[in-house]
Structures are given as C-alpha cells and as structure tokens.
Amino acid sequence: MKQAELIFVPVPGIGHLVSTIEFAKRLIDRDDRLLITILSMKFPFTPATDAYTRSLTTSQPRIQLIDLPQVDPPRSELLKSRGYYISAYIESNIPIVKDTVTKIVSSNSNSDSTRVVGLVLDFFCLPMIDVGRELSLPSYLYLTCNAGFLGFMLYLPIRHNQIVPPGVLPSAVLDKDNGYTAYLEIALRFRDTKGIIRDNIMKWLDDQPPLSVVFLCFGSMGSFGAGQVKEIALGLEGSGHRFLWSLRTPTLMPEGFLERIKGKGMICNGWAPQVEFLAHKAIGGFVSHCGWNSILESLWHGVPIVTLPLYAEQQLNAFSMVRELGLAVEMRLDYKIGADLVSGDEIERAVRHVMDGTNEVRKKMKEMGEMARKAVMEGGSSFISIGQLIEDMIGSS
C-alpha cells in the first residue's frame, strides 16, 4: 500500500501546536495510508514545550516531530508588535524549512512506498507557500481561529484601500504602522493555498440536500449499551434517510454497519457541536434525549424532534412537547436506562415520520422558531421579561 506523507508547519505557540497535533491524529485515525511529519520551530521567548508535545504523539507511530534548529531572533524593536515579530520570525525560518522539506521529498523520491503530497500551514506560516510551489507541493491552510476571523482575513485585502470604521476591526490590526501590515501580508496569501481545512462533518453536511439529514444526540451524559446501539443502527439503516449520529462508543456498532452506510451517514465520535449542527440547512430532524437546552436549541432552529428521554426531567419535557404542544414526534415518553430496548422498527418509524416534509410537527416547529426569534427582539415577550427582571433587581436601588 503506497503511503502519503503530509508535512505540517505550525507556529510554535502551545495552543497552535496542540491543536495541530490533535488534528494530525484525527487524520491518521481516519486513513491508514497517511503519514504526518510536524516541523517544530522554537520561539526564543516561550517556555520549552518539547516534552509535552512529544507526549501527545508517543502513541502515534505515524506522526513524527522534527525539531528545527533555533534561528537568531528578530530585532528587538519588532517586539512592539506581536504580529510583526511573529511574521519576521517565520520569515527567518523559511530557509531551514525549505531545506528540511527538500530532504524529506528527496528521500521519498527513491521510495516506492511513500510520497509527500502537500504542506499543511498555520496561517502565520503562509510565506511557506513558496517553498511548496518550488517543490510542486500544494499548500493547505490550517486555521486555529473561528470562521468569523477567516471571513475577516479573506476580506481584509479587499478593504485595504477603503475607509472602514475602526470599531469593526480586531485590535491587532488597528495600528497601521505595526500589526496591520503584518496581518495584511498574511491575508493576501490565504487564497494562494489549495484549500482551507475545516471540520469533515460540516463539509459532509454542506454536500447534503436541505432537510435531508436526521441528527441523533443524547446529551453529555446520555449513553447506551451494545443492544440499544444495535437497534438504533438498524432503525437508521432501515429508514433509508441520511443521518448524523453523535456516539461515544462507535465500537458497539453492528458488524458491517459502517461499511453499509458509507456516504449515507456519519458518526461523530464524542462531543458534538450540537448548536452548529442544528443550525445547518441539511438537518431535517433531531432524535433527542429531550434535555431542555436541546429542546430550546431545536425550537430556535425550527428542527422537529423525536423523543427518547433518558433521565432527570426529560420524560416531562418529552410529554409536554408531544402531548401538550404537538411539537415533537413520539418514539418513547418514558424510556429509562435499564428498561426494555427501543426496537429498530420503532426507531425506523419515528425517523420516517419526522423526516416527512408534510407532517404537522415540522410546520409547527418552523412557526415556533419564528416566534422564538421575535420573542428576543425589542418589544418581544422575552425581551420585556428580562427588562422587568432587571428592573426588579436594581430598579429600587
């Protein structure tokens, strides 16, 4: 089996390094063909992180860390701007990175089993794009910030020659003589990368038709035994609908299930960004434990719920949503850990029902979502109630 090697070039700050290593681990866990080399630069003013970063990769033989020799630090006057200093330091490391990458590519050129397929660059390291180009390697941007910052950086070059109120800009770019130019130079390279790496689950959701995916998530404490996991899996498969399932123990899956649902379903191991998923246009239904936060989040985004209460007050929540409000599809109202299993047939029926675009629950949830948004606007019931509470708390003082 021919293996593909990626070369990561992160900024040496611990937050960037740890995130990079964790992302690298996720990649190799997904595909046995991947090898990853991480080039580790050293800032002169940060504490040594070698022991810690190496501890993160000790159980990962397909990830190797290469410590680059420390270069002379930039001039001390550049310290007045962190952006300038980091950019200057990265620039000074380019010759070393180029030499190291060239050696790796050269050593693999004589190998029938491994080839270097690209660079993965921290956004501060985008000047390294030119190293990749010289060696005919594509570069990918790994951004350790949120999507809002990505949008800002993509837009910064466009706004460069236009007047813009200072209040809308991050503080790092307010000083035109210091940080601004450094960030502008980085921003100009964003579109030179082959791609910007984002969560593979969100990318999968982006590719699905609107309202076509049922999302299953059972809270931070919700868990099932092997028998119930099997029934849920069989019910999902039998329903024929696309699905995204947040599951802590994917090893409990029925034999062959993951192969059979490839392209049709996704498993999110561990914690899931539930709000982000519910807000996605592809999500058309939500199988939930009926925790109150989950109900509010689903109401806000107008996503119809299938009830599977597990503990605490969730049975009451489920009853209210199904019987009193007509805002959910009943699968179980009284399910508890240790009770009879919810069968695959029950799950299949409930999923088919909630994903039916003509059902009344979907219409009511959409209306409720619109009402919820009006409630928090000025003049809305929630807006007024909060004002009354504040007045009651501090009005007489």
Report on the structure:
- Helices cover 44% and strands 16% of the residues.
- With 397 residues, the chain is α/β, with parallel strands linked by helices.
- The longest helix has 28 residues, at 82-109.
- The mean pLDDT is 80.
CATH class of the largest domain: Alpha Beta
Largest sheet: 6 strands, parallel
Helix content: 40-55%
- Helix and strand element order: EHEHEHEHEHHEHEHEHEHEHEHEHHH
Overall 3D shape? globular
Q: How many domains?
A: 2
Relative strand content: 15-25%
Give, in spatial order, the strands making up the sheet with the most strands. Answer: 3-2-1-4-5-6
Contiguous uncertain segments of 5+ residues: none
CATH architecture annotation name of the largest domain = 3-Layer(aba) Sandwich
CATH superfamily name of the largest domain? Glycogen Phosphorylase B
Could you say which structural class the secondary elements and strand pairing correspond to? alpha/beta
Residue-averaged pLDDT, rounded? 80
Gyration radius from CA atoms, angstroms: 26 Å
Protein name: Glycosyltransferase
Pfam families: UDPGT
Keywords: Transferase
Family: Belongs to the UDP-glycosyltransferase family.
